[in-house]
Write a structure and sequence with these properties.
Layout (H helix, E strand, L loop, with lengths): L1 H22 L11 H12 L3 H24 L4 H13 L8 H6 L2 H27 L11 H10 L1 E4 H6 L4 E2 L9 H5 L6 E6 L3 H15 L2 H8 L1
Helix pairs in contact: 1-2, 1-4, 1-10, 3-4, 4-6, 4-10, 6-7, 6-10
Length: 226
C-alpha cells in the first residue's frame, strides 16, 4: 500500500511540476490526486511497527510545520508549501538502520535536500551568464561592489525579448512581483534587462522526490561513501 500511496503523490507532483514549468500557475485540483495517497499512507503507517508510526508522525509534523511557515511568511510559493505538506503526509518512511539515517532520510527532508542540490547547476550557470553579460545590463553599471555582487548572485541579466515572451517566468528585480504586460512593453528598445527569474521549484521538488524514492538522500549517500 505504501507503494500505491507514493504513486499517487508522484503523479500529483509530476502534474504540478509540468504546470509550473509551463506557466508558474498550478491548478488547485492537481493536488487532489494526492489525497488517496495520504489516506493510504496513514492506513499503512497505522498497521506498521511502533517505530514506523513514530517516524511517520514526526515526518508529517515537520513537513506540515514547514509548509505552514512558508504559507504564512510567503517565503516561497503557496504551491511549494502544499507540495511539502503532501510529501510529508503521503510517504511512509522506511525502517532506518541508524538514528542519523532516520533524520537525514526522512521523506520530506531528503526530498528537499535533493531538490536543492539539483538547483546548484542552474545557480552556477546563472552566475556565469551574469558575469558574461554584466556590461549589457545597465542596472549593473555605476553601483557599489556589494550591490553588483548581489545582482550577479541573485538576479538574471536576460534578453528583453525573452522576458517579453515569458513574462510569467520573470519578476522586475524582486521576487514578490511579476512583470505585467505594461512593464514588459516598457522593455522595448533595451536588449538586456536585469530581472529575477521565478524558478519552477515544484519541478525540482518533483525530481528530488523521485530521487528520494529511488536512492534516498543524496547527501546521506555521499556521507556513506566518504
Amino acid at each position: 500500500m505504501a507503494e500505491v500511496a507514493v504513486a499517487f503523490m508522484a503523479l500529483s507532483l509530476g502534474a504540478a511540476a509540468l504546470q509550473d514549468v509551463r506557466g508558474r500557475v498550478i491548478n488547485d485540483l492537481t493536488w487532489f490526486v494526492a489525497a488517496p495517497g495520504v489516506a493510504l499512507a496513514i492506513w499503512t503507517a497505522a498497521k506498521s511497527p511502533l517505530i514506523v508510526i513514530y517516524l511517520y508522525v514526526l515526518n508529517a509534523a515537520v513537513g506540515v510545520a514547514l509548509a505552514a511557515i512558508i504559507w504564512v511568511t510567503k517565503s516561497m510559493g503557496e504551491a511549494d508549501a502544499i507540495g511539502i505538506a503532501l510529501i510529508s503526509t503521503s510517504t511512509v518512511p522506511a525502517l532506518p538502520p541508524t538514528p542519523l539515517y532516520a533524520a537525514l532520510n526522512s521523506p520530506v527532508i531528503a526530498s528537499l535536500v535533493n531538490s536543492m542540490l539539483l538547483t546548484i547547476p542552474f545557480i552556477i550557470w546563472n552566475i556565469a551568464m551574469n558575469i558574461a553579460r554584466a556590461g549589457k545590463c545597465l542596472e549593473m553599471s555605476g553601483v557599489s561592489a556589494s550591490r553588483r555582487l548581489a545582482y550577479l548572485l541573485f538576479l538574471t541579466c536576460e534578453r528583453s525579448s525573452v522576458v517579453r515572451r515569458k513574462p510569467w517566468a520573470y519578476s522586475p528585480g524582486r521576487l514578490s512581483l511579476r512583470i505585467s504586460d505594461e512593464a514588459a512593453q516598457a522593455l522595448e528598445g533595451r536588449e538586456y534587462v536585469l530581472v529575477s527569474y521565478n524558478m519552477p521549484y515544484i519541478a525540482y521538488m518533483f525530481l528530488g522526490y523521485l530521487i528520494y524514492l529511488l536512492v534516498g538522500d543524496l547527501v546521506l549517500k555521499l556521507l556513506i561513501i566518504m
